[in-house]
Amino acid sequence: MDVTRFLWLTFNFPIALIAIVALIVHKMERRRRFAVRCTVCILVILGTALGWNFINEFSGLRGLFAWDTSQCFLLFALTVAATMCCFCCDFWSALFAGTAGYCLQHIAFNIYRVITLSVRAAGADVSRAADYLTLTACYIAVFVAFYFLILRRTLRINQNVTVDNKLQVVVSTLVLFLTVYLYKLVFPVARETDNVIITVGINLFAMIACLLGLFMEFGLYATKAMEGERDLAQRLLHEERDQYLKEKATRDMINIKCHDLKYQLAAIESKLNASEFSEIKKAVDIYDSTVKTGNDALDVVLTGRRLLCQGRDIDLTCVANGAAVSFMSDTDIYSLFGNAIDNAIEAVSMLPREKRYIGVNVCEKGHNTFVHFENFYVGRLVFKNGLPETTKDDKAYHGFGLKSIRSIVEKYRGTCVVEAEKGMFVIDLIIPNPDAFLAV
Question: Is the pLDDT of residue 288 over 60?
Fold first, then answer.
């Protein structure tokens, strides 16, 4: 018995499958005694493969269709069970990872088959060492490409790879099983014909079928994630609308009370000493902090944020022509300016006093409305698709502020430009004014 070849035939499939599934689930929450669980599971999988191949070697069962197919499916099932044993996930998430891992293993293996068949058809002799290295290189190339093209983006959305659509996983698994079944049934027959074109065609078909399975899993998963992000954005927008109405009502009530108090204070000024009068007047002067831009919604959001900035010792400088955004809905104005200033407040709150500055400018030039936000910041920002990624750990529920701003601007066919350079963070918005075009 050739020991090297025996060990290679025994372990190349389960090790490749374990490696890619581990890559898919590596950010999941781990169960207690993870190292022990992981070691035991790997030993069980590899031990099963070793025992199966010993039976193959001495029983003459190797090459039998049902026997070889059962081995692959058994190792797949053990890998799914091992995932559930080692990580805090349900059956469907483990099946999702196992199916994706088996699809990738099968894709890499068929790429290796196409390469070696093509080389041999050209008359070249492939040594055993070159054969082993070629398969290993195919595994590494496919797994690395999968990680950077698909998996990394998926893990940003959901590190636990949770699955909502169980039918999606079932169909993908059935596609995989049917592909492997047909491959093991047809490939030996095609190889006996010694027709390279037919054999390579079978390998290409298997690759395409597995790619389809991957698309069904991760393509639909990405669609589901986008739908969840959209629903979350809509919910946040609804909450912002409710918050706007509450702030507006509160501001109106405060304005009325402060206005009345000023008259009452003037009437009793002579009965109070200077210190008492100064303290009361200071409390009533909150009325004077109300921003007047000519747009009620803009007044509400700027007044509320100015009071918040005063409490945090932040300078909020605002030069705004409210009429320039009069064509926008009140909710959009509140959401756009509220998100921009809230992000700025969060950024400058960590800075020394002299850099706690936020600038807002709103003006109209020609048929366009120009909105400019600026604030100091510290740290390194990573931009993706023109927007900086959130620095918070929970990326699934943060980072919607700037996305919301851009979405609102695009709703009015405007342009959003975000820049960060030399410690200054800038948002520039250019929004065409439809009212100005109608007037022309």
Answer: no
